[in-house]
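User: I'm designing a mutation panel for Bacitracin resistance protein BacA and want to avoid disrupting the core. Could you give me a predicted structure to guide residue selection? Please restate the sequence first so the numbering is unambiguous.

Assistant: Good idea. Sequence first, for numbering, then the predicted structure tokens:
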Amino acid sequence: MEPNEIYTPPGGPPPSHPQVRLLFQKWGEPNIRRLVSDFYDRIKDSEIRWMFQGDWELAKEKQADFMIQVLGGPSYYIEKWGPARMRMRHFAFPISEKERMIWFQCYDDALQGFDFEHEDKIDFLYFLDGFSAWMVNRKEPPWEKYTQNSQGSNG
Ligand code: HEM
């Protein structure tokens, strides 16, 4: 497989988790927006920062709109930004298992700062684990390609 070839995880899309749709009621919109903002601040300090080249505030808004929708709140994402098609929207970003784990860890760490029920946090992380596995679209970490290329070229 070429390093930049789109990879499709064999597990397919994650199943829906009805308990996740109760979290909007339990956590409320301001907390969800704060959580997403904390998550993005952690991304800024992470190894995958380079992937995020858009406007941070807009990225936070879109991500929060999507999460609110998934957690059973208003359909902000679809109303403002159109059909979700999340896997397709991520094709431009080379996401292998390594990037997924960094992304996931940022959410896990951000969540620790919130006084939510433990079981609810587990439900949310379980959802993110399944959904992020479905966002994986590269088999290898993207930089391996560059390492191989630089070794193979004459300058
Ligand atoms: C698996 C690791 C993931 C990585 C590395 C990743 C990376 C990215 C990047 C680089 C962007 C563009 C941000 C910008 O505008 O600068 C983005 C957008 C977005 N991501 Fe992810 N993502 C991942 C997983 C997920 C998951 C699991 C979800 C949802 C559960 C998600 C939801 C979104 C949303 C809603 C957007 C905005 C899309 C748009 O309307 O343009 N991402 N992601």
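For picking mutation sites, this is relevant: Residues 18-145 form a domain with the Globin-like fold (CATH 1.10.490.10). Residues 48, 51-54, 59, 62-63, 66, 81, 86, 89-90, 93, 95, 99-100, 103, 128, 131-132, 135 surround protoporphyrin IX containing FE (CB under 6 Å).
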